[in-house]
Amino acid sequence: MAKGVWIVAEQRDGALRKISFELASTARRLADELGEEVGAVLCGSGIEGIAGQLAKYGVDKVFVADAPELEPYTTDAHSAAVAKIVKENDPSILLLGASTQGRDLSARLVGKLATGMGTDCVGAKIVDGKLLLTRPMYAGKCFGEVAISSFPQMATLRPNVFPAVENPKAGEIVKFDPALDAAKQKTRVLEVQKDASGKVDLTEATIIVSGGRGMKGPENYVIIEELANVLGATVGASRAAVDAGWRPQTDQVGQTGKIVSPNLYVACGISGAIQHLAGMGSSKVIVAINKDAEAPIFARADYGIVDDLFKVVPELTKACKELLA
Amino acid sequence: MNIVACVKQVPDTEAQIRVKADGSGIEEGGIKWVMNPYDEYGVEEALRLKEKNGGEVTVISLGPARVMETIRTALAMGADKGIHISDPAFDGADAYTTASALAAALKDLNPDIIFCGQRAIDGDQGQVGAILADLLDIPQVSIITKLDYADGAIKVIRPIEGAQLLIEAKLPCLVTAQKGLNEPRYASLPGIMKAKKKPVDVKDAAALGVTPAANAKVVKFVPPPARAAGKIVCGDDPAAKAKELARLLREEAKVI
């Protein structure tokens, strides 16, 4: 009988990522409703020291695989290690982050565990002893309530949506042998090229300032960047701006770009094509700055200014700077 | 090389999605169906690989009769043959079932490389590629923006949060395509004519030996929560409006 709510904790360069605490807190909430324990799997190399941090967010037991083959992350090695410990312990629920790594790992695990999963969920609750998930579909144009009839009931949770709540537990650490077969590892990370800017990825950002066609050219993004700097925000762009070659593809927010859910989304010179609205529609607070009062973005915005962005944005930067000083 | 491109037919990105009154699905009337945009990058990369190294591109899709159009589109772009998995029993299939059907249909083909889109823009799940790779017991690299092939292995670029990885994988392998990988070609008129004569093998669940099931099931579709009407900051002076907006974000919305 499957029992226990488990998470796969995510670490990078020996530090737990924020999503791990969001997962732990959510798992704790679900486990309390079921009267079960929270387990976490942590994989990497030289990471035993950080396992204890998970107990602070409600994890009862951390299963740690510490092996050189587990650093850096590869789908091969991590999915083999996690599948092994999960099969041995038979949890009823398994949660991962809807991060790049979590999405990759979880899908491979669905194959290995022959189960079902809800991806990128924004809601998770227990109904009649089973997990019921809420997830955006069609990039947020509609939502689906998902139930899973196999075990473990798997889900990836969207970063930034589920709160990380401190809830300290005694927290036991259990080492396990991932029993990796080097001959079976067919992928290898040859090189990690770090983004030197140190900016938070759009999918994890709490504030995003985006520019669209109304920016008129790549050189004008400097005013977007200045506002972003003051707010500690990440810069995004609409598909129009990316297709025009003004911004890199990694900046694109929308149905064929990144689906984001920041606390604050500032759309500058973005008319609000349906594809764009789909990608940023779940932002908590949306601000639109556009000189076209008829632009569809205003129908979605919590706050709007109808005016020339080239006049408004620098003033907004100045005003925010004063407020935050 | 035996190259496979998996494609899915989805509502185009401009489609308005309306949920049926009883929450059992979405209204399909008036929807324009297209090849999933991420799958187009996969098809394009498959064709480029064939053009450089020789071989054959097989395009495969699961879905109702209308999916044949999407298969023909890939054939018109230059793929050589198609497989259409068509069976009403697959309606509402989850990712695992879909991948099982694809795996069964591809088994005898022994593909060297399989392309999928990184996710489909309807279900937004991004699971099928990885599950398919697992069922075929081959490695997979997800969400790639560059691919080079040489000597039985590929080197790919995979962006992750705050970094890019250069990954080497031995073939056979499955990759999932992300925007930026290439610029997909349009089907030419001669291509469209030729596509009509290319073979497409249609298979049902019985032929594949797959029992359709849905471990993950959407039990209810709901429209997105409505947003309350926003506040337009009025006035003639951009500086005054900007200042008021900053105040609102700080004091009312409490987001800065």
Task: Give a description of the structure.
The complex is a heterodimer of chains A (325) and B (256). Chain A is α/β, with parallel strands linked by helices and 325 residues long. Chain A is 27% helix and 28% strand. Chain A has helices spanning 18-34, 75-89, 100-113, 221-231, 239-243, 274-280, 297-300, 309-324, and strands at residues 5-8, 11-12, 15-16, 38-44, 61-66, 93-97, 117-121, 123-127, 130-137, 142-148, 153-157, 172-175, 187-194, 207-211, 234-237, 264-268, 285-290, 303-306. In chain A, β17, α7 and β18 form a beta-alpha-beta unit. Chain A is elongated. In chain B, strands 7-11-6-1-4-5-12 form a seven-stranded parallel sheet, sandwiched between helices. A three-stranded antiparallel sheet of chain B has the order 8-9-10, with no helix packed on it. Chain B is α/β, with parallel strands linked by helices and 256 residues long. Chain B is built from seven helices and 14 strands. Helix content of chain B is 29%, strand content 28%. The longest helix of chain B is centred in the N-terminal third of the chain and has 17 residues, at 37-53. The chains are: A alpha/beta (325), B alpha/beta (256).
Topology:
The complex is a heterodimer of chains A (325) and B (256).
Chain A: E1 5-8, E2 11-12, E3 15-16, H1 18-34, E4 38-44, E5 61-66, H2 75-89, E6 93-97, H3 100-113, E7 117-121, E8 123-127, E9 130-137, E10 142-148, E11 153-157, E12 172-175, E13 187-194, E14 207-211, H4 221-231, E15 234-237, H5 239-243, E16 264-268, H6 274-280, E17 285-290, H7 297-300, E18 303-306, H8 309-324
Parallel strand pairs in A: 1-4, 1-6, 4-5, 5-12, 6-11, 7-11, 14-15, 14-16, 16-17, 17-18
Antiparallel strand pairs in A: 2-3, 8-9, 9-10
Chain B: E1 2-6, E2 9-11, E3 33-35, H1 37-53, E4 56-62, H2 67-77, E5 81-85, H3 95-106, E6 113-117, H4 128-135, E7 140-144, E8 146-150, E9 153-160, E10 163-170, E11 173-177, H5 189-195, E12 200-203, H6 205-208, E13 216-222, E14 231-232, H7 238-252
Parallel strand pairs in B: 1-4, 1-6, 4-5, 5-12, 6-11, 7-11
Antiparallel strand pairs in B: 2-3, 8-9, 9-10
